[in-house]
């Protein structure tokens, strides 16, 4: 069986009249300039009406995420970044349905990561199985989105909210440097994390339950469960 991991899409950008992210950035910037790495960005995010991922619905998970620490492969212990978000409105999601995919959207957000925290620790998303990413700022020149399997496990799908905090338990299976201003679909049900993002990483994230079957992929990467290796399929 082949399990989808990630692919760049051949799809148009979200028009600025539907979501002016530059204007949004102007609103965010002054608040974020006051961010102090020794504190958490939550109160600042709230000032501009942003939520922390799962802020309301999963209060326990939220507290855990805020204080989450991960052990990196070099045994360095660091605090994981997390996403603050604002929902995109019906005009933006309507445009996505008209111009990119008819698949049902679970959640459509404008997100930014905690500044000063350089990794988003390996996790499985809480609300969706696939995410269409559109990067507005990358968070650091060497940024990478990395997919993992747990050592000693053949299956790579995980249940909602699953995470692994010790990278010594993980084996990398694929990595991608998501391009700016380009739609990229990634699996959210396979353990994944983001590396080298000391600065704020901003993106649109559109969630789906199912893999998108009505889009054009460029260089889609899958995990082959039989050979336990990644395979690349060029366009189509
Ligand atoms: Fe994720």
Description:
With 236 residues, the chain is α+β, with helices and mostly antiparallel strands. The chain has a single domain, classed as Jelly Rolls (Sandwich), CATH 2.60.120.10. 15% of the residues lie in helices and 37% in strands. The strands form three sheets. A nine-stranded antiparallel β-sheet has the order 2-5-6-13-8-11-1-14-15. The longest helix has 12 residues. The radius of gyration is 17 Å and the shape is globular. The protein binds fe (ii) ion. Fe (ii) ion binds next to loops.
What are the SSEs and their pairings?
Blueprint: E1 2-9, H1 21-32, H2 42-47, E2 51-52, H3 59-66, E3 69-71, E4 77-79, E5 83-87, H4 90-99, E6 105-113, E7 120-123, E8 130-138, E9 144-150, E10 170-176, E11 183-187, E12 192-195, E13 201-208, E14 217-224, E15 229-233
Antiparallel strand pairs: 1-11, 1-14, 2-5, 3-4, 5-6, 6-13, 7-12, 8-11, 8-13, 9-10, 9-12, 14-15
Bound molecules: fe (ii) ion.
């Amino acid at each position: 069986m082949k399990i989808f991991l990630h692919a760049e899409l051949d799809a148009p950008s979200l028009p600025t009249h539907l979501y002016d992210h530059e204007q949004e950035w102007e609103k965010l910037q002054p608040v974020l300039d006051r961010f102090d790495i020794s504190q958490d960005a939550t109160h600042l995010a709230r000032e501009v009406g942003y939520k922390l991922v799962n802020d309301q619905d999963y209060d326990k998970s939220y507290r855990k995420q805020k204080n989450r620490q991960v052990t990196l492969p070099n045994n360095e212990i660091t605090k994981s970044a997390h996403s603050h978000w604002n929902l995109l409105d019906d005009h933006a999601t309507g445009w996505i349905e008209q111009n990119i995919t008819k698949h049902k959207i679970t959640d459509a957000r404008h997100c930014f990561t905690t500044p000063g925290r350089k990794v988003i620790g390996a996790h499985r998303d809480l609300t969706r199985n696939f995410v269409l990413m559109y990067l507005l700022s990358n968070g650091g020149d060497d940024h990478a989105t990395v997919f993992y399997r747990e050592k000693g496990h053949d299956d790579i799908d995980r249940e909602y909210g699953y995470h692994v905090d010790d990278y010594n338990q993980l084996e990398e299976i694929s990595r991608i440097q998501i391009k700016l201003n380009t739609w990229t679909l990634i699996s959210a049900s396979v353990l994944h994390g983001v590396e080298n993002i000391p600065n704020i990483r901003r993106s649109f994230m559109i969630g789906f339950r199912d893999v998108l079957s009505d889009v054009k992929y460029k260089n889609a990467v899958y995990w082959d469960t039989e050979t336990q290796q990644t395979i690349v399929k060029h366009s189509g």
